[in-house]
């Protein structure tokens, strides 16, 4: 472990798809991680998923060869984050849930500890009302899978302090990530562009204009989208996508962000994408 990695003790709150992916990225770069969730079974599944993702990242050449993997510990209590040098909140995109978690974390960590919300759409200015020291709150939007995608959208809220921005930039540098800083707004840049596009693609399928495969093939071959919007929806998690679109619609009034009927139908049917084994495509079985 280099001095850059030794300086960091990361806590990740939320052991879902993004929380496990962020944990994998940090561990693979030699940073120790405390992973917190309210459900022991979820933590156990996350530990298995992280082991699989570390092997995948190594096979893809996405991890530095000269660093030992960081130590993973798990906990059911946010209070165990007291000694963290930074905390990443990576729970579902529901304002009430994020408010509860960020408020509790803020009361536990030492002053000066960056609180990093991995959010896809809730403005940082809004979340700043939920924490004790708003200058310590900053937004990030890691793309999935975060252990393979090296660019990270970083959202500086109107009350985010310079010390927090410097600390987050240093953490991302230690993780070999490129930070692109943007200003605060609902959906920021990536979600504001990507999520309405996926919604439109699903609407086209729902209206019978084209099949799922046709939409993705055309977007790949004609417009250069690397995977197609509906495969991307399956990777994001269709429930997460609906939550994010709902946040965007409520805060912008943009009808393009109102979740279309097909997305809502899939959530009701439990067809959430790769994590459930079926979404727009069939993956055979749910991912661990």
UniProtKB/TrEMBL annotation:
<dbReference type="InterPro" id="IPR006108">
    <property type="entry name" value="3HC_DH_C"/>
</dbReference>
<dbReference type="InterPro" id="IPR008927">
    <property type="entry name" value="6-PGluconate_DH-like_C_sf"/>
</dbReference>
<feature type="binding site">
    <location>
        <position position="93"/>
    </location>
    <ligand>
        <name>NAD(+)</name>
    </ligand>
</feature>
<feature type="binding site">
    <location>
        <position position="275"/>
    </location>
    <ligand>
        <name>NAD(+)</name>
    </ligand>
</feature>
<dbReference type="Pfam" id="PF02737">
    <property type="entry name" value="3HCDH_N"/>
</dbReference>
<dbReference type="GO" id="GO:0006631">
    <property type="term" value="P:fatty acid metabolic process"/>
</dbReference>
<dbReference type="GO" id="GO:0016616">
    <property type="term" value="F:oxidoreductase activity, acting on the CH-OH group of donors, NAD or NADP as acceptor"/>
</dbReference>
<feature type="binding site">
    <location>
        <begin position="14"/>
        <end position="19"/>
    </location>
    <ligand>
        <name>NAD(+)</name>
    </ligand>
</feature>
<feature type="binding site">
    <location>
        <position position="98"/>
    </location>
    <ligand>
        <name>NAD(+)</name>
    </ligand>
</feature>
<keyword id="KW-0520">NAD</keyword>
<dbReference type="InterPro" id="IPR036291">
    <property type="entry name" value="NAD(P)-bd_dom_sf"/>
</dbReference>
<protein>
    <submittedName>
        <fullName>Methoxymalonate biosynthesis protein</fullName>
    </submittedName>
</protein>
<feature type="site" description="Important for catalytic activity">
    <location>
        <position position="141"/>
    </location>
</feature>
<keyword id="KW-0560">Oxidoreductase</keyword>
<dbReference type="InterPro" id="IPR022694">
    <property type="entry name" value="3-OHacyl-CoA_DH"/>
</dbReference>
<feature type="domain" description="3-hydroxyacyl-CoA dehydrogenase NAD binding">
    <location>
        <begin position="10"/>
        <end position="184"/>
    </location>
</feature>
<feature type="binding site">
    <location>
        <position position="144"/>
    </location>
    <ligand>
        <name>NAD(+)</name>
    </ligand>
</feature>
<comment type="pathway">
    <text>Lipid metabolism; butanoate metabolism.</text>
</comment>
<dbReference type="InterPro" id="IPR006176">
    <property type="entry name" value="3-OHacyl-CoA_DH_NAD-bd"/>
</dbReference>
<feature type="binding site">
    <location>
        <position position="37"/>
    </location>
    <ligand>
        <name>NAD(+)</name>
    </ligand>
</feature>
<dbReference type="InterPro" id="IPR013328">
    <property type="entry name" value="6PGD_dom2"/>
</dbReference>
<comment type="similarity">
    <text>Belongs to the 3-hydroxyacyl-CoA dehydrogenase family.</text>
</comment>
<dbReference type="GO" id="GO:0070403">
    <property type="term" value="F:NAD+ binding"/>
</dbReference>
<feature type="domain" description="3-hydroxyacyl-CoA dehydrogenase C-terminal">
    <location>
        <begin position="187"/>
        <end position="283"/>
    </location>
</feature>
<feature type="binding site">
    <location>
        <position position="120"/>
    </location>
    <ligand>
        <name>NAD(+)</name>
    </ligand>
</feature>
<dbReference type="Pfam" id="PF00725">
    <property type="entry name" value="3HCDH"/>
</dbReference>
